[in-house]
Amino acid sequence: MFMNKQIFGAPMAGITDKPFRRIIRTFAPDVALYTEMISCHSLVASHKNCLRNFDRYDDEGNIGAQIFGADAALMADAARILQDAGASWIDINMGCPVPKVATRSGAGANMMRDHDLAEKIMRAVVRAVQIPVSIKTRLGWDDAHRDWADLISIASDCGVQFAALHGRTRAQLYMGAAVLPKLENPPIPIIGNGDIKTVTDVQNVMGAGYCGAMIGRAMLGRPWIFGELTGQACVPENIGVVALQHLGYMIEYYGEKNAIPMFRKHAAWYSAGLPNSADFRIRVNGITSVPELVDEICKFWGCERTI
Ligand SMILES: Cc1cc2nc3c(=O)[nH]c(=O)nc-3n(C[C@H](O)[C@H](O)[C@H](O)COP(=O)(O)O)c2cc1C
Asked: Distance from the CA of 306 to the center of ligand 1, in angstroms?
């Protein structure tokens, strides 16, 4: 699935669900997207809603299923389950900094300071599946340990096909500017990630030796960004129409009662920076019915009701 100079949508917990990927694919059908991160423990134990994290449309291709965990055998089992469920590739999370994942469970970013465990997991997962395996990692645990190149070299030895590198350390979380090191002959293709928002940013990343660019927060409230970057679409004339379409997908998938509170953050992102958006957000946060929410969106953007 990996192609040189490809653009990827980053895995984002609580965001890159099936309706979000669906709205993105209306602008760029074949863009490479990831699921939210999926716990290998919950997946293998078939916890309620866990395989749901990998729900996709029957015709949804080019999708990487991201798993996290610290147990090599369970990670391998999880990878097999996701391969059978139709994942295009398996991605191993080696960058999540949240304490519940990285310090308390020894997963995610912990792989950056426990390369032996990371190697065991990569070998087990690569052995378990026939589809490609990738990793997503950061520069290192903290400023004193920027050993991303060692981890990527181990990944290459293990048969991992490509890596995504977020230009921050675990200690930086999501703060400060992302800085991607210049690459010279990396052992496997590396995708650059962190603060990439524009065509120029993408060109800069490719110019620094990266084989692809991964967009994270810049896709929030801008699902057309991949269409813009790949030349398949441009900024829509009326953003309200896109917001309504996204809301419609969420209602179809989660049901009205769940979709309304879940859509609030998307409403905030779609309206960010527009005049009167603060008032709009306050009103949307108090709404509990779909017709009211649709009315509010139509009023704010001056668009027709489509759902
Ligand atoms: C709310 C949120 C959820 C995220 N969830 C994940 C995740 O599930 N897996 C992962 O590898 N990274 C996750 N990330 C990190 C992003 O994939 C990305 O690496 C990071 O946001 C930097 O890219 P950006 O500067 O383009 O946003 C998350 C980031 C945010 C802000």
From this structure: 31
